[in-house]
Amino acid sequence: MNFMFLHQNFPGQFLHLAPALARAGHRVVALTSRVERNRTWRGVDIVAYRHAAPEGQVLHPWLKTLNAATHRGETVFRACRALEARGFMPDVIVAHGGWGEAMFLRHVWPEARIGLFCEYFYRASGADIGFDPEFEGQGELGRAARVEMRNLAIRLQLESADAGISPTRWQADSHPADLRDKISVVFDGIDTDAIAPDPAAALEIAGAGRLTREDEVITFVNRNLEPYRGFHIFMRALPDLLRARPAARILVVGENGTSYGTPPEDGRSWKDTMLDEVRGRIPDADFARVHFTGRIDRAQFTRLLQVSRVHLYMTYPFVLSWSLMEAMSAGCAIAASDTAPVREVIDHDRTGLLFDFFDPGALVARVVELCEDRALRARLGTAARERVVRDYDLRDVCLPAQFDWIARLARG
User: Fold this and answer.
1) Helix extents (H) in 142-252
2) Would you say the pTM of this structure is higher than 0.90?
3) 110-134, pLDDT tens digit by residue?
4) Does pLDDT of 138 surpass 80?
5) Beta bridge partners of 31
6) Per-residue pLDDT reduced to its tens digit, 345-357
7) Per-residue pLDDT tens over the stretch 155-184
8) Could you give the C-alpha distances from 297 to 97, 192, 293, 300, 303, in angstroms and in order?
9) Has residue 56 got a pLDDT over 90?
């Protein structure tokens, strides 16, 4: 069969599925704007498309997301017409619904079966929007209308798709009730063989030297250090955490951009903003035990999890991070925010410890509890890994489920 994947940052969530289909003997094409030129990757023919965001258009503010999605959808429409002219006819198309890439596919290949990766559907209340009052505009006029328009491109794509797939039940249930039956819940998958506990693991960190399981290493990971993933709460807890754990090394992984939400109003990074807020409460000797690593490679990240004594994970009610699942796979003792969809994978006092997202004191108390109780760490870390191996393992659970979803999508 002929498969086509659409993802502006391919492979993204299709990291495992697309090459697995190629290994199974299918022709697999991926359309993306991430690369400059066409190439082959793990058996997948990657076709580059160029997209420039529109400039200078005067729009109603509520239309910005829909307008951006429409422009990207048009770019992909033209790229697909070019593929069609060269004779490519996909049997199945799988697209991420977040950026509008699948909006006009039916006008090119009306008979193709279309599956949509349904990562998230925004809500005016009860999820990320309105969750954190510190960063909410007071009395915003028409919030629900704005969110409805923001979701419109996702809704249009899911309406025209034959099926959807979502990594967690909570993320699937964020979508409208009339479309929810289209969506199957299948997680992306964790390579639990590659990401596993290793008592002999060691990690070299500039300024910290060589760290092992014998060191008290506390880890906090974001793609970008920002409020959506609790960075501001973590930083406010940092002075007390350093005081409570005088031997701890705290490793903070993440870049200084913004993946979700908005940057500070003054245009600086959230890292600089929060350092300005808390640095005066941290003695120099304590601050020397805090290491901002920036972005690290895959091998380093695995070792970081393997040497971590306590791993911290925080998020608004929003999409679940791979980093949490990988920390569980590595057998970390985890302290996490008591938010959705974290509660789908972290059962309090079974696979980790939960705390109130907005309570820095509770964060510190959970970390201290884990640092001081070796038996508790071992029990929670073992259970966390067992949960991931049982329900989220790539080869034995998730990839077979994704193949089953693809087969059902192809059959109609």
Assistant:
1) 143-160, 169-173, 231-244
2) yes
3) 999 999 999 999 999 999 999 999 9
4) no
5) 6, 47
6) 999 999 999 999 9
7) 999 999 999 999 999 999 999 999 999 999
8) 28, 18, 11, 5, 10
9) no
Q: How far apart are CA 152 and CA 73, in angstroms?
A: 13
Q: How far apart are CA 404 and CA 149, in angstroms?
A: 33
CA 50 from centroid of its chain's CA atoms? 24
370 in Cβ contact with 310 (< 8 Å): yes
Residue type at position 12 = G
Q: Domains in the chain, please, with CATH?
A: 2-189+394-411 (3.40.50.2000), 202-391 (3.40.50.2000)
Q: Please state, in angstroms and rounded to a whole number, the distance separating the CA atoms of residues 88 and 402.
A: 24
Write out the two tokens for 252: 């903070």
Provide the 10 A C-beta neighbour count for residue 29. Answer: 20
Please tell me the predicted confidence (pLDDT) of residue 139.
62
Tokens of 39: 């190439």
> Tokens representing 348?
């309090």
Strand partners, 116: 95, 164
If DSSP codes are grouped into helix, strand and coil, which group holds residue 291? strand
| DSSP 8-state symbol, 187 | -
> Helices 298-307 & 322-329, crossing angle to 10 degrees?
60
